[in-house]
């Protein structure tokens, strides 16, 4: 997905400010490390940065025109002086780094400027990493390197020390929600998707996932019976919940969805209605917010968080959920 500086500054203000300042002051580092979770826009930012460096007709000191030959070639992925290296199978191999070094011993085709981007840099083999290290130790004034990673701790410290780190943070939920809505995701779905994942492609996939849609319905039903008909809660748990949330990851998702419902009640109590992730349940949750004390709400949310912790301790999921239902109703503990 292409990116412009206005979007970049909105989504990643720290990273955008750092990179923009380097371009404006003509102090672009020899090597950068773009690190952050999947889906935070690191790759798109590296292409935007490349456009800003290569563009022959910038609109200002930073903003690329998007129309010149350099911009078009970068957007099409075929600029001769911009090289992107990605894992070949499970790793980035030494041959790939050697080929890159050979390429960079040549002069630039379009200009003196050259740039390379290494995607998933943590997947370099030891030999590939050592080969890259030699490359980084012999910096060329016109060469810019960007290493993109989700796991900087797996990269050689000697490589890290030669890179300027640019951290990409998870998108604020309200910005991610708008981004999803702009791509056609329904306004009712978007806030919940933004709450359960910060990965754009995963959010798009979940929006069309029948299992996820059913999970939302089952969670809402359990929440309702816990209030309206507590005696039926165990039956509902057995009939629907345990049959749908079979695997540990699925059960964890179910607990997340349930926790977000109780958080919505809290948001209403705090007057933060604009942060609801279940906006279509607003009327029901407003009624609950009036009838529930903040202390009781805190206890219920704590019970769900404790259930998530116990889930990772391999406690029987049936027993875990039965205990959670009792805790949410204010019953005794036996786990």
Automatic annotation (TrEMBL):
Output the InterPro entries linked to this UniProt entry.
DNA_pol_HolB (IPR004622), DNA_pol_III_delta_C (IPR015199), DNA_Rep/Repair_Clamp_Loader (IPR050238), P-loop_NTPase (IPR027417)
Catalytic reactions on record: DNA(n) + a 2'-deoxyribonucleoside 5'-triphosphate = DNA(n+1) + diphosphate
**Keyword flag Protein biosynthesis:** no
All copies of the DNA polymerase III delta subunit C-terminal domain together span 248-328
Q: What Pfam families does the record tag this protein with?
A: DNA_pol3_delta2 (PF13177), DNApol3-delta_C (PF09115)
| Coiled-coil spans in chain | none
Q: What is its EC number?
A: 2.7.7.7
Which superkingdom?
Bacteria
A molecular function annotated in GO for this UniProt entry is: DNA-directed DNA polymerase activity
Record carries keyword Transferase:
yes
Annotated PANTHER family? DNA POLYMERASE III SUBUNIT DELTA, REPLICATION FACTOR C / DNA POLYMERASE III GAMMA-TAU SUBUNIT
Q: What is this protein called?
A: DNA polymerase III subunit delta'
Tell me what organism the protein belongs to.
Lederbergia graminis
